[in-house]
Write a structure and sequence with these properties.
Blueprint (H helix, E strand, L loop, with lengths): L3 E5 L14 H18 L13 E10 L10 E10 L4 E9 L8 E14 L4 E2 L4 H8 L5 H21 L11
Antiparallel strand pairs: 1-3, 2-5, 3-4, 4-5, 5-6
């Protein structure tokens, strides 16, 4: 699975009274990364993919650490976690990559549900075959991995309950 990388500059105006990037500003950062991903990297010269408009149906953001102003841009890594008939989910990490001197630092984890939209008709539209092919290159399906893990735990529990011994285990979230 490929991931899209966008280097987002920090602006002095992004800071709030507490000296870190304001929580609302992170939505703008995610928007910049999403637009860069969907429009600049859309397939083919002259392609109509992703140009008809889209709307955000949902945002979810987990703030992990404060991000303070500096001259180096922050990395926003994004990928697709779900492709439906008329919506997709993009997941993000806003972070600094690991270096020899410091481990990776994640400031925000987020996801956005995007709905392609037909502006002329004023209604949502389906994802085209060309858009689906493009999005699948960035698809990481955590639901499939989660379901497989649940099946393995269920099978293990069933096997241990049919035996004479007991078993304990835990799953990390």
């Amino acid at each position: 699975m490929a991931r899209h990388h966008y280097r987002c500059p920090l602006r002095w105006a992004d800071m709030d009274a507490f000296g870190h990037v304001n929580n609302v500003v992170f939505l703008r950062y995610l928007e910049e990364a999403r637009i860069d991903f969907m429009f600049r990297l859309a397939p083919g010269e002259g392609s109509e993919s992703f140009t008809g408009g889209s709307v955000v149906a949902r945002h979810e953001i987990d703030y992990k650490l404060p991000l303070v102003h500096r001259h180096e841009p922050v990395l926003i890594e994004s990928w697709v976690t779900r492709i439906g008939a008329a919506s997709l989910t993009i997941r993000y990490e806003v972070k600094d990559e690991a270096t020899e001197d410091a481990p990776e630092t994640v400031y925000v984890r987020a996801e956005t549900v995007v709905v392609p939209y037909n502006l002329a008709a004023g209604r949502p539209r389906r994802i085209t075959a060309e858009e689906r092919r493009f999005l699948q290159e960035y698809l990481d399906e955590p639901e499939a991995a989660s379901k497989a893990a649940s099946k393995a735990v269920s099978a293990s529990a069933a096997a241990s309950s049919s035996g004479s011994g007991s078993a304990t285990g835990s799953l990390a979230a």
